Amino acid sequence: MMSERVGTILRSMWRRITQKLVNKLILLFTSVIILVVGSLTIISYQMIEKESVNHSIASTTNNLLLVNQNLEDYLEGMQQLALPQLRYNDIMNAIANENRDYASRMVIENYLRSMFYSRNDLEAIYLYVADRHQYYVVTRETYNITVRKGINTDIPKLPWYKEAMASTTNESFQSFVGSRSDMGYVAPKASFMAYHRVLRSIASRHPQAVLSFYYNTSAVDEIMQNIPLGKGDQLMLMSPKGVPFYVNSFPLYERMRDSGVLAQIGKGGSGRVTWSDSSGNQEYLVVYDAGEKDGWQLIKPIPYRQIYEAATTTRNWSYAIGALFLGVSIILVTLTSNAITRPLHKLSTQMKRFSTGDFGATAPVKGHDEIAYLSLHFNEMVQRTEELINERYRMKLVEKNAILKALEAEINPHFLYNALQAISTQALKREMFDMADMVDALAQTLRYSINGKDIVVAREELKHIERYIGLQKARFGARLRVEVVWEETLMELPVPRLSVQTLVENAIKHALEKVSSDILIVISAESSSTNATIAVRDNGPGISEDKLRMVLDSFHEKWEERESEHIGLKNLNTRLKLLYGDQAGLFILTDETGTEMRMQIPRGGSSHV
């Protein structure tokens, strides 16, 4: 019930809005503006959003690649520092004899000091003698760098120690992210990571000692110098085994680890994945890069909200500008629509007056647009209607006279035909047979001419041509010879009445009347799969080129511009076009041996009028 009531209210409001043209125009233009502005805003937002993602991926991937190169160089420096190289035998002898030879202890201490002095990113260096569980440590104390000695039997139990001993490269890396319970040594809190290196005897490959380097956080700055980290940016450094060595936010790392997204990253190359943080209700673009040499992984999770920030700002500004533009546009559209519809309203009012019979209704004409043109012609229509009404009575007065004139026009040809029949009868009584035949032929010709049919069969037209030729022979005698080559199958061909006579009459006029010799006129007909062609040929002198051009040009003249000299052929060509369309027409072929006129009509000769 409620939905029906709401629907009724909405339909009623829609009818009230759309019952006026001005409201329809405002609604139309407003819809177009909203559609255009909304579409452009959405398209631009999607393009900027896509471009922001691509830019973030490209820039972050390049930055991670540079950082990974720094990391590999840094790790290579660690490895080079941990190898005694040329002093390897001296160091190994000193480690073997340090418990009973003071000089050996001095060699070890000086070796540790020299390594510690060589770098600024070291917090401490430990040398653990495996067989005696003794260690030497060099650290930076208050005023100087000292070397101390101690004993620790728990070192061999620690994971990093076991890993270094089992490693084929005699090394292990220790992370200080998270718990520090398995450190073994008391490392400074500012330590970034530890690197442990096993020193083995060259001869027996027995482990003699383990060197442990503890690097401070300045190492992070050196490694990360090529990647900008703004406020809220996150970065993770993972070992090839997936152990975190550096994270901005440990809780974020734990959520990524627990969700399994870190397992999707892989062991080599670069790429990206999308991760949804269910606890933080946020979606991240996780871009990663793994070093080609050691496989250390740099992972940077970027919130999509941060990536889309520029696109969101642009979208909000577009909506604000679009709303302002829409408000201004509605005002302009309202003013324009009223300017358009006001003259139409006035014109509509005058039309209502005119429909009630008020012929004094006139609409104001302002400007030169289509509405002014319509108003002007409405005024002319009103004036013309009034004039026509005034003339109506005068037309009724002459209507009877017009009817009488029409009857008279119909009676006169019949009167003439009857008079010719009377003359023929008197000629027969006086045995003037030639005169009677001529009068009878003229009477039959007149009767055929006033026949109301426009299309006749070829048999009737040829019968008429026979009478017409008989009359012409009375004038020209034996000089006029006519042959008819017409198949019996084409005797029922429908043709326009008096069409063949027009062609024969033209042949007599332009051939027989121009010369003193005999003229042969051949009337023929042939039929193809699509057309029927009727030809009238004479062996006269032909038509000159200029004369032929004038005749053909007259076929294309307007009816009002026709000339009387060529009116017969032009009328016939026009009749053919009107009766049968553009497929029909009249064609003229002429040379010094004579002239042939062809009348072409569609096969069957059926009229389309």
Automatic annotation (TrEMBL):
It is found in: Cell membrane. CDD domains: HAMP. It comes from the Bacteria. It is a multi-pass membrane protein. This is Sensor histidine kinase YesM. It comes from Paenibacillus peoriae. Residues 338-390 form the HAMP domain. Keywords: Cell membrane, Kinase, Membrane, Phosphoprotein, Transferase, Transmembrane, Transmembrane helix. Its main location: membrane. GO terms for molecular function: kinase activity. The keyword Kinase applies. The chain crosses the membrane at residues 21-45.
